[in-house]
Amino acid sequence: MRVRADGGGPVTRAAIWIGTSFKMNKTRAQSVAYARRLRSEVGGGVPGVRPFVIPPATALAEVTEVLGAEGPVMTGVQNAHWEDAGAWTGEISVPQAADAGARIVEIGHSERREHFGETDHTVRLKAEAALRHGLTPLLCCGESAEVFARGGSGDHVLRQVAAALEGVDGAERALVAYEPVWAIGERGRAPRPEEIAPAHEALAAEWGGRVAGVLYGGSVSPDNADELLGVPGVDGLFVGRAAWEVEGYLALLETGRRRAGAGA
Ligand code: PEP
């Protein structure tokens, strides 16, 4: 559900976003095999769904070629630098990512905030860079288990999103992924819908009409995808482990298609 910017109440969402990042997994051959299978199953698109795949940067160009640079399945990068070029050893810029086919730039994942010194400041610079070059930033936000336990989820994510997007030109083209740190990855646990509802309610009220969509991510699987898509304010899902086998991703796309067809 999207909330109208004029405060006039909920409107039907345009489409359900269902995306995956492979993180630091898969060779080029494995990524291309995944993309080929995906193309053979959903090459013409999935009604009511906007799929996207974020492979490792080493495979981005080939995966984009398989899925089509303008095709219904978008591709992206897991990180990009805020400068266009320069002496930044080991980094990839937004223009380089775009040159390899990226339409989406993932920014501020909690693993990058924790292990690679990503801050609210660099996240904002990266969001600005992505928007400046016409790409879609996928801004990840989410609270720790401690913040969750004391009921601070909503305030925490509102602060993170405001730090990245408030006053930024083109912010309405950004996506936000709410990814509670306690829910993602191997050590995460799948949330109950009511546990993610407060943050999504806060994000929908503040940003629902000001960004392109607010996704949920963290221990999503084909078993819980439908109920998580049913949480008010959830415009889609961002998925790790459960989508790394293409069958898992196809199952999630099917869940999105069914829900979109039901007009949810
Ligand atoms: C993530 O880390 O962004 C994520 C969504 O992971 P998973 O689905 O594996 O919890």
Q: What is the count of β-strands?
A: 10
**Helicity, in percent?**
25-40%
Q: What form results from the Cα inertia axes?
A: globular
Given the helix and strand composition, which structural class is it? alpha/beta
Q: Spans of 5+ residues with little confidence (pLDDT < 50)?
A: 1-12
The strand order across the widest sheet is 3-4-5-6-7-8-9-10
Q: Into which percentage range does the β-strand content fall? A: 15-25%
Q: How large, in whole angstroms, is the Cα Rg?
A: 17 Å
Number of helices: 10
Instruction: Name the average pLDDT.
Output: 94
What's the story with the biggest beta sheet?
A: 8 strands, parallel, barrel
What features would you describe in this structure?
This protein has 264 residues and is α/β, with parallel strands linked by helices. It has helices at 28-42, 60-67, 94-99, 110-115, 120-132, 145-149, 153-165, 193-207, 225-229, 246-261; strands at residues 2-3, 10-11, 16-21, 49-54, 74-77, 104-107, 136-141, 175-178, 213-217, 236-239. An 8-stranded parallel barrel has the order 3-4-5-6-7-8-9-10, surrounded by 5 helices. A two-stranded antiparallel ribbon has the order 1-2. Phosphoenolpyruvate binds next to strand 10.
In short, what is this structure?
It contains ten helices and ten strands. Helices cover 39% and strands 16% of the residues. The longest helix has 16 residues, at 246-261.
What key phrases describe this protein's structure?
eight-stranded parallel β-barrel; binds phosphoenolpyruvate; single chain; alpha/beta; 10 helices; disordered N terminus; 264 residues
